[in-house]
Amino acid sequence: MPSAWKIVMVMTVVAILSGGILAGVYRVAQPLVERQAEKELKEAIFSVLPQATSYDEMKKGDLIIYQGLDDQGNLEGIAFVASGSGYQGKVRVMVGMNQELTYLQGMKVLESVETPGLGGKITSQWFQDQFKGLAAKPKIEYVKGRKIEKPNEIQAITGATISTRAIVEMINQKATRVKETLGVVTK
Amino acid sequence: MKTLNQYILFKDLMKGLWKENPVFRLLLGMCPTLAVTTAAINGLSMGLAVTFVLFFSSTFVSLIRRVVPIQVRIATFVVVIATFVTMVDLFLKGFFPPISKTLGPYVPLIVVNCIILARQEAFASKSPLHRAIADALGMGIGFTLALIVLASVREILGMGSIFGIRLLGDWFRPWVIMILPAGAFLTLGIAIGLMNLLTSKITSKSEHRKENSFKS
Prior knowledge:
The complex is a heterodimer. Helix content of chain A is 39%, strand content 25%. Chain A is of the alpha+beta class.
């Protein structure tokens, strides 16, 4: 039976070593992780606001809105992140809209754990492209089993209505909040 | 003497590949096995991450095996394992973000992967450095190969591709079930069954041979 002192010493040394090594690795990796997150955010904003070449971040309370600007600094549209529960877990999407918030310029899924092959298709080009130029008033709707008839409708993914509905709802909700915060009056 | 040592080392290395394959024989680490084998690339990266953690944990545990009091050995192993897992997690996040995203929580969960703790307790903490390393590499490679096999089968049948490259033409309708959790159980069950069949054939054959050689 080793003395309690030895037990404590060994554990302390191991823990200090571990902490020290991790602190070192963290210092190297953390800036990379942050840069990566920033890069992803930037790419997402530019992909949902195709005409923008730079952007400004605007904070209103806990709401973050990205204003897309063109070369001359004119406002091209606004982008924001919407999130909600999908079929299997959290889904986050970046949404780009025109300034008046009447239609969408694009949508990109940032994060999702939906079922591969079914709900996972929300990340497909086909699904995301449906949101380009989609009318957002009174709100976005999805259809299934029939053709799209109105400019505010998208085709639901076969076998993944829940994922489709989740995205449509999270965009509608967040868009309403953004409208209220920015004081845009929808006619 | 030297050849005997080499033979032991070789055996330590090879047992992880077949006889004590962590996935097919020991049935350890089933959680990541079932969860991440939806695509071959995920299986490969998970396997490599586990191999890395196994290699360094076994090395370290073998080095400090005489110093660590037996009462706190498990606590010490867990600290060592957690250190290397956190390193892998940060490394993947920083350098391979897409892989880190698909593997999600399963990278930090390597900490509780029973293969790793089992190898520390059963082998590395009782063995000299070179044998611990051989064992860790064998187990790591065995785990990686098993994951690649399972993930390839599931990706080919479930998506018609392998490592993201299209393998089967448009005529192929993917069996979506293969990339769902049910497909993981089906593939694993069939693979284990096949391996048992093969092993029993091999052993009965070698026993047969032994009997014959005794007669002659």
